[in-house]
Amino acid sequence: MAQRILNFVGGAWTDSSAEVKQNVSNPALGKVIGEVVMTPQEQVARAAETGHKAYQEWRKVPVTDRIQYLFKFKQLLEANIDEIAKTITNEAGKTYKESVAEMRRGIENVEVAIGTPILMQGYNNEDIASGIDEHMFRQPLGVVAAITPFNFPGMIPLWFMPYALATGNCFILKPSEKVPMTSVKMFELLEQAGFPKGVVQLVNGGKEVVDAILDHPYIKAISFVGSTPVAKYIYSRATANGKRAQCQGGAKNPVVIMPDADMDTTTRIMADSAFGCAGQRCLAASVAITVGEARNVFTEQIADAAASRVVGYGLDEKAQMGPVIDARSKSRIEQIIADGEKSGNANVLVDGRGKSVSGYDDGYWVFPTILENVNPESELARTEIFGPVLSLMHANTIEDAIQLVNNRAYGNMACIFTTSGYYARKFRNEADAGNVGVNIGVAAPMAFFPFSGWNESFFGDLHGQGRHGIEFFTQTKVVVERWPQEWSRQF
Ligand code: NAD
To answer: Tell me: the pLDDT tens digits for 228-244?
Structure first.
């Protein structure tokens, strides 16, 4: 029977009164496993009000006590990682191993946020003028909210939640309506960790729920991860309403392959980057730019790697890649490939369309696909495909390759494979991207570094994770004080 997805508001699991529902599917089975109800505006308002009330007490809880809840939450996440990972696989489609890895990266953010007693410290000077001292404190904002995408249902909420809570804010999560079950599991653990009522809340739904969050005056900051058009919309509406916003958008990540690269290692890493998580990763390699004689050998090797990747249900140990998220996504990806081929802007070297996995005929399968000779000026070269599709381009020199890297709207990630320190350094310096990899296929910053998208991949100032997370969720208060001796009684 399909699981009905509940909200967690004011410390209780509550159903929504709304009529509008959306099915949650297991993308490998093509079968409905859940039903998410779109929370009406007044219930979102209730969550904001409950959070606002809880905030009056939570902000006064000493930071050393606040992080005890996170210690507990971390232990519970560790103890339940298998169950959460299976939930991720069943609703998002990725392999069990990928789901566990996702949770590990999420848990690392809880660990970093446990360092908040140090990370949140301010600074001060004595005697900025004679007998006058000046201090900077960091104080929480109030109620904050995160709106997250389907592709990392466990990790992405944890890019924000632990930092927000440890710094003394109350937190509301609105997960993707395509994958709400992982959040339900995590909120069961938050409940067990014993956070006071209203400190951490869950509301489900789509655009209407997002709009209610963006417009509510008690909600002071918005963290968003998703596609670029929605990131732009959310950033504009949140900031127009006077809120802080950090909005991470889409990507189209280029990788330069130099002729001196170790080709076996490069191919292995590139195949994992392009086809891991079925290419539904904002740090997936989506364009490979070979330089000089790298072209023939890389093309041959990556085509073999793509054709031999084992696609299947993520709970099957043999599966190296799962399905894409839904039927709509599958047909969108296949259409982009078809349009690219028809317009003459690419040749399909390895074709992942029209395939199916035995025993899972209703799954949303797109197998690894390689597009060759992609025209860098075409729409195809600019569009985020968000599926297991790698586009190949070629350049004669590193300068031409860097120009191709920088000739795009996004700036989430750019990587180079080379054995030359000179080329690596030049690339690191000149690539127009916030996350750069050298002989790395997925340049994902650890939890103690900011997730630094640029250009159309990010709107805002402070990124998610680490010190940026602490700064985003706090406002600085500067105190200048004078205590003359003559005002004190003499003892
Ligand atoms: P999406 O933009 O469709 O949805 C993200 C969230 O926004 C969901 O919670 C959804 O309910 C909400 N939403 C969707 N449409 C909305 C609208 N019109 N108004 C208000 N809210 C809306 O993204 P997705 O398909 O869930 O995720 C895939 C996208 O996320 C890709 O573009 C990918 O590159 C991006 N992504 C980026 C990063 C990053 O760090 N930059 C990380 C992961 C995913």
So the answer is: 999 999 999 999 999 99
Whether ligand 1 lies within 6 angstroms of the CB of 251 is answered as yes
272, 433 in Cβ contact below 8 A?
no
Superfamily of 3-249+457-479 according to CATH: Aldehyde Dehydrogenase; Chain A, domain 1 (3.40.605.10)
Residue ranges covered by each domain of the chain: 3-249+457-479, 253-438
Beta strand residue intervals within 175-328, DSSP E: 200-202, 219-225, 244-248, 253-257, 285-291
The arrangement of secondary structure in 253-438, i.e. its CATH architecture, is 3-Layer(aba) Sandwich (3.40)
Would the CB of 226 count as within 6 Å of ligand 1? Answer: yes
pTM of the model: 0.97
Nearest atom within ligand 1 for CA of residue 229: 2
Active site residues: 282
Pocket flag, ligand 1, residue 149 (CB < 6 Å): yes
Q: What mean pLDDT is reported for the chain?
A: 97
Q: What distance in angstroms lies between residue 398's CA and the mean position of ligand 1's atoms?
A: 33
Question: What is the rounded average pLDDT of the residues 409-419?
Answer: 98
| Ligand 1 atom having least distance to the Cα of 249 | 41
Helix 398-406 and helix 421-430, axial crossing angle in degrees, nearest 10 = 30
